[in-house]
Structures are given as structure tokens and as C-alpha cells.
## 1
Amino acid sequence: MNPKTMDLKTFKGGLHPPDGKEFSADKAIEICPLPEELIIPLAQHIGAPAVACVEVGAKVKKGSLIANARGFVSAPIHASTSGEVIAIEPRPHPMGKALPAIVIRPDGADSWDESLKSANPGDLTAEELKACIQAAGIVGMGGATFPTHVKLSPPADKQIDTLILNGVECEPYLTADHRMMLENTEQILDGIDILRKVLGIERAVIGIEANKPDAIETLRKEAALRNIEVQALEVKYPQGAEKQLIDAITGRQVPSGTLPMEVGVVVQNVGTAAAISAAVRLGRPLVERVVTITGPGIKDPKNLLVRIGTPLQFLVDQCGGLNGEPAKIIMGGPMMGQTQLSLEPPAIRGTSGLLIFRKEDLPRYEAGPCIRCGRCIGACPIHLQPTTIAAYARLDLFDEAAEYHALDCIECGCCTYICPATLPLVQSIRYAKAAIMAKKRTL
Amino acid sequence: MLASILTLGGIGLFAAIALGIAAKKFAVEVDPRELAILEVLPGANCGACGLPGCGGYAKAIVAGSMAPNLCPPGGAETIEKIAHIMGVEALSSAPKVAVVCCQGDNIKASLKYQYLGLEDCNAAQKIADGPKNCPGGCIGLGSCVRACPFGAIEITAEGLAVISRVNCTGCEKCIATCPRSVIKMTPLSATTHVLCNSNDKGALVRKYCQVGCIACQICKKVAPESYTIENFLARVVYDSAENAEVAIEKCPTKCIRDFASGYPEGSSFAAVGPGTKPEQAA
Amino acid sequence: MVELFVILVSAVFVNNFVLARFLGICPFLGVSKKVETALGMGMAVIFVMTVASVVTWFIQYLILIPFGIEYLQTIAFILVIASLVQLVEMVIQKTSPVLYQSLGIFLPLITTNCAVLGVAVLNIQKDYSFLQSVVFSLGAGLGFTLAMVLFAGLRERTDLSPVPKSFQGTAIALVTAGLLSLAFMGFAGLVKG
């Protein structure tokens, strides 16, 4: 199928950076071997960090519960392989500081916990399925890591009618979801069926960018049998941002300061759907994920199935090592990912990619004055005035920044990318947002 | 001639009488003490007292809701005058100045990563707790410079904030904005300070800073009255620091400094000479 | 009627007091940092101008001319306007604290403002009737407010821009005012006279 002849939907704004997906798009998912030790941080999701429930010296199996969720907006954590807990201490975390983590030394057997029970989703009620998802520690696999069971529990007054599956993968370089859709099609579709049952709705749409024609074709063939729509979308960043995706597919705009359920939509990543299927059918909790290890600084870019807690250095070693001196290491995509200080931190549930750039790949220009070209305004997917908000932020005029809806910024980075004066716009806005939130808390 | 004098005089007289009557009739009660206090306040509207401006503070003093010694820029003189107006004894607070307790500029202290973003310490602090390996050191992006209403702070070429002891009024605005609390209030009379703000252990401090306090206890041995060491960081005990300066020579990392002999190198204040106010030196 | 309209438009745009006659530059530069305060100041000026032109019209035609002392016009007008504004301020302060907060604080600033005196003197020079002079002063006040608000809006924008050090503060404000004045010259052919 020719993507040009497809009916492509999209939103207003955004841009298309060079996507760099050619490095790893054709590389089939490989299983990453066991490292010498796995560092499993307790904070891997949005919400309260989990609380460790094992002691140093405990023997664990793959999939054993090692940390309990704290509160509703939280998720439990499971051992990603069998072995011995050798430490529970602060270790380097992708957030840039040392945070508490459970360190496991693998015994090499990698055997699953026998107590994990498989089930047939047809035999379970919606509530049981949701409990199953919650117990498996499933979080949003797109990178935001929001606990999935919370998203699946809309308040009674919100009528949900559409489930959107996010297979957009609009971040440049990343190909993990692309490979998942090609190789784990069956699992994803099964996960969608479970999600539809939990939400009690019929309509499900998979949104995929048109630069993945093979994935669109594969899914269309299978999905038609299950009454699932597949929608091709224009290749544009941030097409995969929740509210932009809803706008593109349903034409509904999520009002400022509210959640997608306000317009009757729940959005889940395709990776999350696959994880849900594994959790219900096989009883397997979320202990591994697909990570794209790529960038010009890597010798042999790959898509790896990685156990949560595998140190980044180990992943780099699996991909032929570094190709020159690294200057920038990013976990996640290049637009919204988290810059890393070293390769010591482990891969966590939100690690969709690991990008390594060398100095020569990063042209750097001095930030100049704003020339009022308005390109940031055109690129902003939520129609803000990034340059005005950033200017207010620089002058510490946070009330004015709030008037210009700084809090609605999704920090996608389009404005910073497009700015010909190379101003750090999104950082300024993020700074203003933090200050506005701090002010709100004190009031 | 006569007509013009009479006419203009008449108009003037009429206006004067009208204004006089109006002043009586439409008088709004303003406490005269409030005006008198406003007169003696510095009028910088800096907000150091916690209120938006000098007017608000004057009102609060008269209302009795705030003490008269909360205006650091005004100093002892202002406090005395206000106390005189209010008819209470002066609760003098010793004049204070802010000191940046760090000497680890971009050359002496090592960096965790190269920061290329917004020129603001608070913004940099949000990225992996700041670009310096030291968790307490001055980031040197000048948030305090912008916060200072008196232009008393500057950033040296090597990236370290330095506060002029002459221009600092002790309003504490810089302290409120500094994300690392590296600026401390000290009595103006004390010129010897420990210029370090790292609570890490000595061995770790040595790794990332040439001039950090390594908590070696030598200063405390030399002048036991003048120093305390808490959380691996020496501090001058300003109440009893009579001979704090004897430890300056002994400090192995040279993180104790005496401002009477000048500012840290690299600042333009250093060229001016010793950091003491003229009246205090006398 | 048409004549009154012409006077009004002329006073607001063509012969704008600030940008074409260059009167009242002091509050124009002083109170134009924020649109809100500029608007408050403009309102105060409209009020004072109208009241002052009414009073001075009567002073001119009922006192100065009958006594043959027109040469004392300036000093008499200043005297009357100043005391009048003082009086109004006192009344407002007592009767309406809310109005005083938004308007009253600007009143002392414009008691002896040249724009206010200018309106009074121009009314006489142009031989306006009573109604004409009221309309003219109203237009002058509106024009002043327009200039103030436009200028304050521009200054709020320049505050956000990285102005070269040598131009910071009043310098860039004066450049902006000059450009705004140039822009208002575009109205020059709109009304003759």
C-alpha cells in the first residue's frame, strides 16, 4: 500500500525532524543476555515510588514481587530474572541522581516464578482483568510510565466510547514500537481485546504514522477480523502525544487542564497492550521491554528485548560498543528524552530508547536574540506563544507566563527545535511551569 | 493694575477658602506617625521586611503588627529613628551582610556535565541537581545578581558569585532565590568565614573541589572557641569568634578567608580593596 | 454636529496632544510602564481636562475679559486648575476609596500638567464656543489616553526584549515614543486645520 494514497489524519502544528529511523528500523528484536547485576529502581513510574518487600540475601525468581505499590497511583515492581538480592541502596538513576534500587545478582537460570498463573481473558470479569493488570505492574510503555490501571478507572460520570492505541512513535530514532507491531502483532491485538473488555467499549483505533507502511499493512490484515480500525497518520512530531493523537483520530480537542477521559477517550501505547496480554494470558508481570539502542555513536544499532534493570553500559556492549567518544547520551527519544550523565544507570520501564551522539553529530550555536519570526508559534502543537512565555520566564514574571497558559505546555520541544535563534525556549517554559506550580502550592 | 491684583487675589482667596473648608470636611485620618516612619525608611521598596513596599511596612509598624527592626537596608540608624517615633526602646539588630560560602569556581571545582541551557541557577538546578559535582557549591549563573535590588553581587569570569560587603544591605533577597542556600547571613563585624557549603565527606570533597572544606578539624584545634564542625563542614561561631583568623593560615585547603584582607580573586570588588565599610574600619 | 465631530477626531488623532503637539510628555513617559496604570492615568486626564476646560472657559469669558486682564490668562488658569484638582482629589478620597485607588493617585501628578493647561489655552485661542471647547477637551483627553495605552503596550513588549545595554531604560522608551509619533503623522491629512 502506498502511504501517499492513504487518508492521513493529523493535528495542527508540529514539525518533522529528520527521523533517523533507518539505523534500526529493519533490525529484528533480539533478546538481550543477562548482565552481571540488575539494578531495579523503586521509582520507575509516575506517582509514589514502590516500597521494597524483600530483604538483602533473599532468593527471587523471575516475576516475583519485590516491591509493593504505595497508594493507588503507583505500581508494584517484580524481579526481572531469578537470582539473589545483593543490595537495596541508592544507585544511579536515569533522573540524574542516586535513588533507592534493588540490586539482583542473576543465578543464570532465568526461571519464572511458578506461582504465576495463566488465565483465559474470556473467563475473567472486567474488574478481575483490571486487578490482574494492576498486580502485574503495567505502566504506560510509551515513556510516560503512568500506571495503566489508573487510566482504566475513569470516574463513573465520564462516558468512554473510544480506545486509541498509540503506535505512532513520532520521536525520531526510536523503532521499538515499530518492531513490536511487526513481530508481536498477535499479542498487541489480544491486549486490545482485553482493554476493550475492561472498558466495556467496542471502538478501538490503532494510530500509526505513515512512515511505517509495513506495520500498517500487517495490522490492517489482522485487525479487520477483530473489528479494530487502523488509522494511518501524517508523519509529524508530536503526533504521538496523547492530546494530539486524540485530535487527529477523533477530531475532539481535550480541554485545557483536563484528561483525555473528558472527551470519552482512553489512549494506550501498543507496547502496553502487548504487556497486558502477557500479564493476563501468561500471568507474567512487566519485567522486560523493547529498547532501541541507536544513534551515530553506536557501532551496531539494535532493537533489544531488555530486562528491566540492565545497566545502559551493558546494552551498549551488546550493540558493538561505542563508535567514538560519546558527547550526549539520551534515554528515550531525542526530543523529550532524559539526558544521562553516564552509562551507569539501568534501563527502566519507561526506557523506549538509548541514543548516543558524538560531538560531531551535535552542531551547537550560541543563542541569539529572538527575531520574532513566529516559527515557534506555528510549530506549537497546543497553539501557545512559546517565545512570549519564555521571555516572561526569563524576567521571572510568572503570573504573566501563567496568563499565557504556560501550564498547558507539553514540553514536546518543537519550539526549541525550530527556533532559528536557538533559544532554550522549552527549558524556560519548564522553569516557569515549576515556579507557577510552586506558587500555587504555597497559596 | 488694581483690577488685576484684586481679581487674581480674589480668585486665589476663593480657592484657598474652598480648599481649606474641603480639607476640614473631607479629611481622611492618616496617622502622622505613619508618615513620619515612611519618611525615615530607605524607600527602596525592596520587600526585605516581608511586605511589598515601605508604605505597607510603615502601616504595619503603626498598627503594631510588625516590629520596627525588620528593615535590614535601613540599618541601626533607621531602627532607632522608627523606635523614637513609636516611642519604644530600640531593639537593635546587628548589621548583617550576605556572604557566598563557596570558592569553587569553574576552575577549582569539577563539573558533572556541560550546561548549555537557560542562564539561571534555579533552571540549572532542576537538571540532575546542577552542573557541579559539589551538591552545595555556587552554580554561578547569576540568579542572585538579578535578585539583588542594590547591585551588590557580581559573577566572576570563572563563574562564582561574590557579594560586595560595602553595597550589601542584608535584605536577604539573594538567599531566597539561591537554589543551593550557598549564601549565608553573617554579622558585618565578622570578616573571617569558611567559604564552603558542601556536607560531603572530606575524601569526596577533595575529588571535586580544590578549595572545599574537608572537615580536617585543624581550625577547631587551633581556635576551639571559634569553629564548629557539623556534617563534615566547618563553620565560624560568630558569637565567640574572637580569634577565628588564626586558623586561616593553617587551613590545608585554604577555604577559610578573611574579607578584611580583600575579596576572593577574580571579582572586580577585589580591586577596590578590603571588604569593610569605612565607618566600621574606623 | 459635523463640526463637533471634526473637532473630536482632530483632537484624538490628527493633533494628538502627546504625539503631535508634544504636550504632557512627563506623565507619558513616567506612568507608561504598564497598560493598567496607563489606562488609569488616561482616565484621570480625560476627567481633569474636561472639568478644567469648563471652568477656565467661564473664568475667561466671565472674569478675565470683562475686567480686561486677558494677559493674566496663564497664571489665572494654573491657579484655578491646580486648586480645582486638589479639591476633586479630596472629595474623591473621602467619598469613594475605590475610585481614589484607581484614579486619585494620578491626580496630583497632573494638577499643573502642560497638556491640561494647553487644552484650556487652546480653547480660548481657537475661539471655541462652550460646547466646542468641551468636545475639544474630551477629544484631547481621549487622544492622550490612546497614546498612553499604545505606548504602555509597546513598553511592555520592549521589557521582554533583549535591548542593547546602551539603549536600556529611558533611551529605548524615547526611541519608541519617536516612532509612535512618526506613525501618528500619518493622520496629518485626515482633517484640515
Note: Chain A touches chain B through 16 residues (CB under 8 Å).
## 2
Amino acid sequence: MFDPKTRILVVDDMMTMRKLVSKVCKELGFTDITEAADGTIAWEALSNAPSPFGLIISDWNMPNCTGLDLLKRLRSDGRLAKTPFVLVTAEAEQHQVVEAMKAGVDQYIVKPFNQDDLKTKLEAVHKKYAA
Amino acid sequence: MSAADYPCKVHTSEGFLTLQLFGVLHNDNLKGYEDVFSQYTTQQAHIAINLEHAVSVSMGWWRWLLKVQTDLKALQKKMCLILVKPQMRNELKKEGLDTAFTICANIRDAQTEFGLIKNKMLDTDFINPFLDATLHVLKVQSQVDAVAGKIFIKNPATKGSGDISGVIGVVSETFNGCVVISFPEKTFLNIISKMLGESYQELTQDIIDGAGEITNMIFGQAKAVLNDKGYGIQMAIPTVISGKDHTIQSMSKGTVISVPFSSNVGGFFVEICISK
């Protein structure tokens, strides 16, 4: 599993969802969590971070810059391209999963989810990067 | 070869089956599909062939689908194609087969073609996924056990059913509408408190968007089920309306189905409006 000190960036336009994801991350032992209200704010946080984020957990469906837009931008940036990225979404359709996979998402979690669901996804992401 | 070698999702609904096909449908895999399909084409049910995820369809396949249509006609049942891509329509037209098939925009039109929708608003095939999703979302995200009550038709002029509502537009090729989940303040605070693990005593900006997020989750779950059946519903972003006796403008132009729910944290309503 990720080190509990891993810097996590939680991106969601809904404050309630940011609180929920942060709460579940804290329950999993993480202590360094930053929240961003959309993809544009997230990009600023990523670009200006004094120390790099070790994990991004982002909503898909957001106005202006969606989670998928953020992911594509991240994967095409030499400095940030290898940041683990988990998309959280209420959309569970096959073509969307395929689109996210093509864009380079590491895991895809469908809302609603509980602590065990997120833990399983994060373990899978960590395993992938540790390999 | 087994059925697993011929990917096809089968959805059984009252009076009809939806067969969803995937990938490239070429003459080489047709025989295998014929064997897999034979169990469905003799079931005395109408059949909708969902081509949303089919990449291409060979002439052999089109001819075989025509034969299935003819066989069903002999059983006094209908077959129609749904979610046919423009390129496939062009191929059919080029071969002079476009009028041989009944092509419907989506499953709702297909149901109408089959003569199965008498009252669009009481179509349980459409409503039930929203009710199932409501129970699932509240259970998983807030550990709330809810029970659906008796469905009724609500006068659109009636005021809202709660103090805070999450509203999401339903947009598809053939119908528009909205889905609303309305909570009395106390029920909403109880649900959000359980969801976030903190006690909330009043509606504040910090939590108000939670109504939209719950609606979004319910919509997302139901949409996946409905689109698998061929409804073709598009992605949407929720909004939140709050205040005592609030009205929801988008519900004023159609009949509204209202479903009261009871739960261990209080009652609430799920309302579905289809305006065309």
C-alpha cells in the first residue's frame, strides 16, 4: 500500500465529495491531503507544488476542465506524467472505462464506494507502480 | 465453441428481449452466433437488436438478421434494430435494405413499436433502475436502509416535496425530462452526517451540494443500466435547489411520477418527469 505520508490531491467540484474522499483517505491512514475544486485549480496545485504529489484522486464529470482533461494534460507533461491517477465517477459505462484506460488512468472507481472499495483500488495502483 | 466465444449481452424485459452485439460481425463468426441466438429467437418475444457497440456488420449478418425478422413475424412477433450508426444505415441504404428493417432510435421507440408502452409514465422498465439505484447509493454511501412506497402521479403545479432537491436533466434522442431527489431538511442532514462521519445540524454551503452528488450517483447507476438496454441517455451535471416549498421549473412541463421512500433516517421522494 502507499506510504501514509504520500501527498494526495483530491479533485472534485462538489465540496461534499471532496470531503467524502478526503475522509475515506484519512480513514485509510493518509495524512497529507490537498483538495482542488476543479481540473484547472488542480493543475495549478500540481505545477506549483513544492514537493510532488504521489497520488491524484479526481472526479470525472466537472465543468471547465474535466477529470479526463486533467489526466490527458498530466500524461503529456514530462515532469508529472508518471503521477498515479485514479478517476472517481458516477458513470459506469463500458465505453467510458475504455476512454479512461486509453488516456492512461491507473484505476477507475464508480460511485457510490466505501472504504474497502477505495483501498482495493489504491492497493492495485501501488502494486503497479512498485513493480 | 461456446456462448462465451460470441459476446452478446441479453436483457430480458416484459414482452421483449434486447440482444446487444459487440465488435466486428463478420461472416466467419455468424454460424456460431446463429447457434447462440437460436435459444432466444424461439422464445415468443419481440427482439431488439442493439448495435451501439457493433463496429461493423457484414452482408451475411444483415441477411441473417432479415431471416430472424421473418421467423419472428411468423410467430407474430417483431424485431427491430436500435442505436444503428449512420455508417451502417448508409450501408443498408446502399444495398436497398434500409426499408427491410424496422430501425428505432432507442429502446423506448422499440417498445413503442412492439406496442408495449401504453402509458409512458408508468413504464417500470424505465423507472425501476432509478429506484434500485436510490436504494443502492444510500446503502453504500450512507449506510441508510430505505424502502420504496407506492408510486403516484403528481400534479406538476404542486410545490416541491422537500426542503432541498438534487435535480438532473435526462436528455436522450427521443425524450427529455429530469430526475429529482427531494429531502426534508432533517432527512438530508441525517444522510449527509452518516455519509461524511460528522454531525450536521443545519443546511450550510459546505454540504448543500451533497443533494446534487447523491442525485448524480443515482442517475449514473440508473443510466448505465438503461443505456445497456439501449435508451441512449446522455451525461449530465446536477444542480441543487433548496428552500421551503421550492418549485422545480424543469418539472412544470410534463407528468411527474413521484415515489415516496421511508428509511431509518427519515422519508424522502424520488421524482421522474418526462416532458416529451
Note: Chain B touches chain A at residues 53, 136-137, 140-141, 192, 195-197, 205-207, 209-210, 212-213, 216-217, 219-221, 223-224, 227-228, 235, 237 (CB under 8 Å).
